[in-house]
From TrEMBL, chain A:
One GO term describing the cellular component: mitochondrial inner membrane
Organism lineage: Eukaryota, Metazoa, Chordata, Craniata, Vertebrata
Reaction(s) this enzyme catalyzes, per UniProt: 4 Fe(II)-[cytochrome c] + O2 + 8 H(+)(in) = 4 Fe(III)-[cytochrome c] + 2 H2O + 4 H(+)(out)
A GO term for molecular function: cytochrome-c oxidase activity
PANTHER family: CYTOCHROME C OXIDASE SUBUNIT 3, CYTOCHROME C OXIDASE SUBUNIT III
Biological process annotations from GO: aerobic electron transport chain
Protein name: Cytochrome c oxidase subunit 3
Keyword set, alphabetical order: Membrane, Mitochondrion, Mitochondrion inner membrane, Oxidoreductase, Translocase, Transmembrane, Transmembrane helix
Localization (cell): Mitochondrion inner membrane
Keyword Hydrolase: no
Family: Belongs to the cytochrome c oxidase subunit 3 family.
Membrane topology of the entry: Multi-pass membrane protein
Pfam families: COX3 (PF00510)
TM region positions: 16-35, 41-58, 79-102, 129-147, 159-178, 198-223, 235-256
Automatic annotation (TrEMBL), chain B:
Gene Ontology biological process terms, A to Z: mitochondrial electron transport, cytochrome c to oxygen
Annotated localization: Mitochondrion inner membrane
Listed transmembrane segments: none
Family: Belongs to the cytochrome c oxidase subunit 6A family.
Membrane disposition: Single-pass membrane protein
Name the UniProt record assigns to this protein: Cytochrome c oxidase subunit
Domain of life: Eukaryota
Pathway the protein acts in: Energy metabolism; oxidative phosphorylation
Primary localization class, coarse: mitochondrion
Length: 258, 98
């Protein structure tokens, strides 16, 4: 019987890291082929392999933790550090796009008509759908906290209800944003206003979709009894990510919509 | 999950970064069902009321140089339509399509 004189997890050899790197190469070169040579083959291969690597790698993490018991408190601490560092890096990612927005909007050039929004751009009314979207994300932050308390208190039924509500709110936000994107009178090609608006809100929307997917996986795991009242880090990580997405939206709403 | 009880505290890791002060499941359930969701419903009603006003006439087309930029074609369709193009509200560089 194998023993280890430490509380860390020495992971078994795995093909997913190198396959993930290959997927990244296929995706990036695939984008080049699509943009410059109108071919989508490499891009499709890249996105497909990326999806398969994610599914199988994270499936393996669940196997190692929930089913094989390798996630000691020490291992969990490392995962907490990791998730916090990752979310911090995402904050810096968005910081760049906010920088670009303030660079162009605080001192609008003559080419834009010396004003912000630029001449000819009719911005969205912040008190209509964007306000609703703000309420939706804030509400989902409350329901995900309800979920967490339900899990720690061992209340299975309420945890499932609360997490389902959270995910539905996330889907509602995405649907409303997609509708806003279609209805807006300005596009990404409408001066730096369109560029900053759609790139920042677009990446935010992508993160909402990622967060919703993460929460959905947690819901499936919750239903399948993977979590205990004292050990449910996968859910905590998803909840942290979701709060981050909410906070980014608040900054977007305050700076770009208002 | 059943009731594991307070005896299982030894495995408890530190609280999440976004720890909020304030009660347990009952409190957050109340906040969700009596606070957050009604607020969403109010905002929904607000949107529906505001959108009752018929859509204002779309602005006259002026071929500003800083708008409808087409430095290179989009890699889809005919290359001149943005991804979420709306023929009613989005003009092309040459003007509205409809």
């Amino acid at each position: 019987m194998a023993h280890q004189a430490h509380s860390y997890h020495m992971v078994d050899p795995s093909p997913w890291p190198i396959f993930g790197a290959a997927a990244a190469l296929l995706t990036t070169s695939g984008l080049i082929m699509w943009f410059h040579y109108s071919s989508t083959t490499l891009l499709t291969m890249g996105l497909l392999s990326m999806l398969l690597v994610m599914l199988q790698w994270w499936r393996d993490v669940i196997r190692e933790s929930t089913f094989q018991g390798h996630h000691t408190p020490t291992v969990q601490k490392g995962l907490r550090y990791g998730m916090i560092l990752f979310i911090t890096s995402e904050a810096f990612f968005f910081l760049g796009f906010f920088w670009a927005f303030f660079h162009s909007s605080l001192a609008p050039t003559p080419e834009l008509g010396g004003q912000w929004p630029p001449t000819g751009v009719k911005p969205l009314n912040p008190l209509e759908v964007p306000l609703l979207n703000t309420a939706i994300l804030l509400a989902s932050g409350v329901t995900v906290t309800w979920t967490h308390h339900s899990i720690t208190e061992g209340n299975r039924k309420q945890a499932i209800h609360a997490l389902t509500l959270t995910i539905l709110l996330g889907f509602y936000f995405t649907a409303l944003q997609a509708m806003e994107y279609h209805e807006a009178s300005f596009s990404i090609a409408d001066s730096v206003y369109g560029s900053t608006f759609f790139v920042a809100t677009g990446f935010h929307g992508l993160h909402v979709i990622i967060g919703s997917s993460f929460l959905t996986v947690c819901l499936l795991r919750l239903i399948k009894f993977h979590f205990t009242p004292n050990h449910h880090f996968g859910f905590e990580a998803a909840a942290w990510y979701w709060h981050f997405v909410d906070i980014i939206w608040l900054f977007l709403y305050m700076s770009m919509y208002w | 999950m059943g009731t594991w009880g307070a005896a299982q505290q030894h495995g408890k890791a530190s609280a999440p970064v976004t720890h909020r002060a304030g009660g347990g499941g009952r409190t957050w359930r109340a906040l969700s069902l009596l606070g957050a969701l009604p607020a969403v419903a109010l905002c929904m009603a607000n949107v529906m009321l505001q959108q009752r006003h018929h859509r204002p006439a779309r602005p006259t087309f002026v071929p500003y140089h800083h708008l409808r930029i087409r430095t290179k074609p989009f890699p889809w369709g005919d290359g001149t339509h943005t991804l979420f193009h709306n023929p009613r509200t989005n003009a092309l560089p040459s003007g509205y399509e409809q």
